[in-house]
Specification:
This protein is α+β, with helices and mostly antiparallel strands. It has nine helices and 15 strands. The chain has a six-stranded mixed sheet with strand order 7-15-11-8-10-9, sandwiched between helices. The longest helix has 26 residues.
Length: 363
């Protein structure tokens, strides 16, 4: 077996191991990423050396020295003009300057390291109660300790007054959501990055945005919005909302808004041009209002001029499974691609409607 084939087999095994970790929402270590990158680099080097010894027929009786061609291609990409570049590229018209008719269109463009932008910012699951379940339907039993119940005096010879504790339950049904993305095999083969892992991270970003929207919807369903005429007035309304929450919830409250709304509050000033929204005494980087941490989410998670205040531990994020990512070869012979699929089944339910308040800025 060729050395390149052995390395390719090891790459496939390590890629499958990483994909399995992603499917089970386990952390992929830096060592595993570095090992995969090292194997890919070694594979390219070994494969290049194996190919260099070969001669290929280009136009019937003519032959092309691949080592010479590769040297000319490197010089051409660097912008160097010499005898080799003149020999191969003076009349070039294909990809990277290679002659199309001679197979130049098959020469891949250089793929540089992937630049990853706009990753996951706020994951509201971190402040919710995450509950994995084994079935798609069920209910969450609840009890409100604030229900009216008092101890009454009684005569020793008479019956004690009976009181009944009131329990309730919140039902849930897990909805299935998913998507399929085809990934080119050539991209998987040529890219320096682990493309399947990158697609997995993309799906995780989409999943987080979907969950964030569902969490905020569950928190605000049925709430009557508290209107504030200005951003300055909204800060006061947020303070009132935090203080007005049930005492057990106020101590665990968070304030959630999107970037545009936070910008309005951050720039609000009093009559002496002093900013109303100040950081804590230690100038910490975590913004807070009335002791409640501010979480800034994306515009797709929450509308502009809308602020949600509350104890998000009352939101139960019920999942089965939370996120499943798999790849398949079923694209078939005609399509040179691998299908990557994401499936999530989850529901976000509010177990305590009294733990939330919604403020809107009307101007």
């Amino acid at each position: 077996m060729l050395k390149s084939m052995e390395i390719r087999q090891e790459i496939d095994e390590l890629t499958a191991h990483i994909n399995n970790k992603i499917s089970n929402q386990l952390e992929v270590t830096a060592d595993e990423h570095e090992r995969l990158q090292a194997l890919m680099d070694e594979y390219k080097s070994v494969k290049s050396a194996e190919d260099s010894a070969k001669k290929v027929n280009v136009k019937g009786e003519k032959t092309m020295d691949k080592m010479e061609m590769k040297a000319a291609l490197k010089s051409f990409l660097r912008g160097t003009k010499d005898e080799l570049t003149a020999k191969y590229f003076d009349t070039a018209a294909g990809n990277n300057g290679a002659v199309t008719a001679d197979g130049g269109a098959l020469v891949p463009s250089e793929l540089l390291g992937l630049a990853e932008n706009n990753g996951v910012a706020a994951d509201l699951r971190s402040i919710c109660t995450v509950i994995p379940v084994s079935s798609r339907t069920g209910s969450v039993p609840t009890i409100d300790y604030g229900q009216t119940m008092v101890l009454t005096a009684f005569d020793e010879n008479n019956s004690i007054v009976e009181k009944k504790a009131a329990f309730a339950s919140v039902p849930f049904t897990l909805a299935s959501k998913g998507a399929i993305v085809p990934v080119s095999r050539e991209l998987l083969w040529d890219a320096n990055s682990d493309v399947l892992a990158v697609v997995g991270k993309l799906f995780n970003k989409v999943y987080m945005n979907t969950v964030n929207g569902a969490v905020l919807s569950a928190a605000t369903t049925g709430l009557t919005a508290i209107n504030a005429a200005t951003a300055a007035a909204a800060i006061d309304k947020v303070k009132e909302a935090v203080i007005g929450l049930p005492l057990a919830s106020a101590g665990k409250a968070h304030v959630v808004m999107n970037q545009a709304t936070y910008a309005k509050l951050a720039l609000a000033k009093d009559g002496d041009q002093r900013y109303l929204l100040a950081r804590d005494a230690n100038n910490a980087t975590i913004p807070m209002i009335e002791g409640a941490q501010v979480i800034v989410c994306e515009a797709k998670d929450l509308a502009n001029d809308t602020i949600v205040v509350g104890d998000f531990s009352a939101i139960y994020h019920v999942e089965n499974p939370g996120l499943e990512i798999m790849s398949s070869e079923e694209a078939g012979f005609a399509k040179n691609s691998v299908l990557v699929r994401i499936i999530a089944r989850f529901a976000d339910i509010n177990t305590y409607a009294g733990a939330f308040a919604k403020i809107t800025i009307s101007a």
